[in-house]
Write a structure and sequence with these properties.
The protein has 209 residues and is mainly beta. It is built from 2 helices and 14 strands; from the N terminus they run αβββαβββββββββββ. Helices cover 13% and strands 58% of the residues. The protein starts with a helix and ends with a strand.
Length: 209
């Protein structure tokens, strides 16, 4: 009986290790951007953290996990993450990145060249951009957006939240905010060259210089 218990324990440990190994995945890629190329990111659920850098290298790191991962998911999930790949479409004017899988929680960590405009489409989650120095367009269904800029060279900033708060702060010009019972919108205009356009269905948006 004791030997049977030990053998069963060993098998259970091996099974657990195998499932754990298949339950998360890390994708790392580097892409060289030209000054004419913009960046387009799209995925259903998760978070993206972007650092703007003085380089022509787009550095991408993505952590993938099953959504709501727990004890039951070890045995119920049959998705093998080893087959999940980052879809890339590289054109003269744009690089598009996507992992279209609703069953995964995705964490993106990206270093983006300062010359690249950014477009993000996220279903549920958060967007955090540091040192923004270009145009950005963001659409989030449910979640939050936080942007810290490195310049005041913006022509227009438009923020809109269906249910939540919007804030623009730290700019020398005037910004306007309109609130109803649940929704909020903020805008700013000046003589710069870049644009920020953000829309969130449910959640807060903050842009700070």
């Amino acid at each position: 009986m004791k030997k049977l218990f030990i053998a069963t324990s060993i098998i259970a440990t091996i099974m657990s290790s195998t499932v754990l190994a298949d339950s998360d995945k890390r994708i790392v890629e580097n892409i060289t951007l030209t000054e004419e190329q913009s960046l387009d990111i799209k995925f259903p659920v998760g978070s993206v953290e972007i650092e703007v850098v003085d380089s022509n290298q787009l550095e991408i790191e993505i952590e993938l996990k099953h959504k709501n991962q727990g004890w039951n998911d070890w045995f119920n999930s049959d998705k093998d993450l080893t087959n999940i790949e980052l879809k890339k479409e590289i054109h003269h004017g744009k690089i598009a990145l996507e992992i279209d899988d609703d069953d995964l929680n995705q964490k993106w960590f990206i270093k983006v060249p300062r010359t690249a405009a950014i477009d993000i489409d996220l279903g549920v989650g958060s967007v955090d951009i540091d040192e923004l120095d270009n145009s950005v367009e963001i659409d989030v269904g449910v979640g939050s957006v936080m942007i810290e800029t490195n310049t005041e060279d913006f022509k227009q900033i438009d923020l809109e939240s269906g249910v939540g708060d919007t804030r623009i702060s730290g700019f020398s010009g005037n910004s306007n905010q309109k609130r109803t019972m649940v929704s909020s919108s903020s805008d700013y205009s000046s003589s710069g060259q870049y644009r920020i356009d953000i829309e969130v269905g449910v959640g807060d948006i903050k842009v700070r210089n």
